[in-house]
Amino acid sequence: MSVSELKDRHATAIETVNSLKDRLRQKRLQLLDIDVAGYSRSQGRNPVSFGPTDLVCCRTLQGHAGKVYSLDWTTERNRIVSASQDGRLIVWNALTSQKTHAIKLPCAWVMTCAFSPTGQSVACGGLDSVCSIFNLNSPTDKDGNLPVSRMLSGHKGYVSCCQYVPDEDTHLITSSGDQTCVLWDITTGLRTSVFGGEFQSGHTSDVLSVSINGTNSRMFLSGSCDCTARLWDTRVASRAVGTFHGHEGDVNTVKFFPDGYRFGTGSGDGTCRLFDIRTGHQLQVYYQQHGDNEVPHVTSLAFSISGRLLFAGYSNGDCYVWDTLLAQVVLDLGSLQNSHEGRISCLGLSADGSALCTGSWDTNLKIGIAGVFTGILFAGGKAGNLVPICENVMRFGLLEGIGEYFELSWSKRLLYSQYELQVLIAFHCFVLPW
Amino acid sequence: MIMKEEEKEGSCGSASVVLVVEEPPKSPRSPPGGRLDLYGKRRQMVKVQVLEREIEDLFKQEELKSVEDLPPASRCCKEVDDFVRAKPDPFIAVYDYRT
């Protein structure tokens, strides 16, 4: 076939694809009878309310000398790994703010990091196109550096994001500027599957983010500069299970909704969106009008454990807490005292959903704790010891210095009768994100 | 590189340079004349294949047809609402759950 024939064929194919997509879009529009906010309003839902005094930044993790690009929590213990342009990964104890590891990277241009499910290893990747694995229990070398335990080589572009497959320290999924995602077998260092790429239908531009479904780890999402998010089945690498259109800019971040049937996206177009996996419907757009002409990009997002709140970091330093049901901003963490002074580049919730950590180009990480009315309670046990009703309070030591005593109503006491309450102590604040 | 061609004149043994040929200045290599740019063709072919596969998928997966059988968005919105309100959340006060 000659080049001119190929060009003709290409033009015809583009025309057909566009026409089909248009028909698909029209049919979908007919099915979008309401969005989540409209439905919630019709059901009389009240907005989530946060007062300004309810919010305290309880930890600032200082130690990086460069922009923080990525962070990840451990699934069990309360540790955080962060990656910075200072060329180091730091593992933090989120309870004490202490650093347990500072790992000097062979390539300083790191973009992503992840904790393994057991918390024994961390992975990172960046402009070196390699995903490096560090075993935190390995002995350090003569210079005091932790050696790389495995290098996953094969991407032909930068590694933008990595995430371990839940419950498996041996498998990891990466996304890359080479337009592909890869499932790796860390034991062998080999690629188990490549999703997308030149000979497969997949993303047509850099892939920036991945998110693995917590309830079905065979399914994962990817977000790309081609303005789409795609859903993949790790057993079928040849093509995506679904492609989700709607964004008008790079899809910088994707995250599964806690129920596993929906997911959120954050984009360079300044919006976050909620999509339904089974139907492909775009259920909600989360967008706040800004005064100036420049629309800040959404860089990172995370859902609270119920999905009621969507935390979204923006390129201008804002960090909005969205009420997902009513699509309203209930708080801008960036406007609070002691907030970050630069772009919010990453954020994540602890596995139990009680704490939020944000990372910024201002080189710091900040942690906020969810302390709720029922959560910040301690009860006198039989032996006279204080029994934590809400574990996270004890773990994060929130009793230090702040709070106010007050009596609870009898109905509230009933909720905790199993603790044989003698004394109830509660903080005045309901919610303490960072 | 300069190429010099020497030619001997006559049989007396005296020699003189009669022709000096210089190559054109260096420039980026272009495809051989009269031949195809195979790399470009291959890329074009791949692009077409990807598109044709996408077309096939749109039909093969019967995506267009299946859209007609999909439930409306309101059903998904109800599922979101039900899930969110049923699950406790450390960031949301108890009194908010039923709202």
Automatic annotation (TrEMBL), chain A:
Stored Pfam families: WD40_Gbeta (PF25391)
Domain of life: Eukaryota
Keyword Repeat: yes
CDD domains recorded: WD40
Keywords carried by this UniProt record: Repeat, Transducer, WD repeat
SUPFAM superfamilies to which the protein is assigned, alphabetical: WD40 repeat-like
Repeat (WD) residue spans along the chain: 61-102, 152-194, 200-235, 244-285
Keyword DNA repair: no
Coiled-coil segments on the chain, per record: none
InterPro entries per record: G-protein_beta_1-5, WD40/YVTN_repeat-like_dom_sf, WD40_G-protein_beta-like, WD40_PAC1, WD40_repeat_CS, WD40_repeat_dom_sf, WD40_rpt
Membrane-traversing stretches: none
PANTHER family in UniProt: GUANINE NUCLEOTIDE-BINDING PROTEIN BETA G PROTEIN BETA
Family: Belongs to the WD repeat G protein beta family.
Protein name listed in UniProt: Uncharacterized protein
Organism: Xanthoceras sorbifolium
From TrEMBL, chain B:
InterPro entries in the cross-refs: GG3-like
Protein name, entry field: Guanine nucleotide-binding protein subunit gamma 3-like
Native source organism of the sequence: Xanthoceras sorbifolium
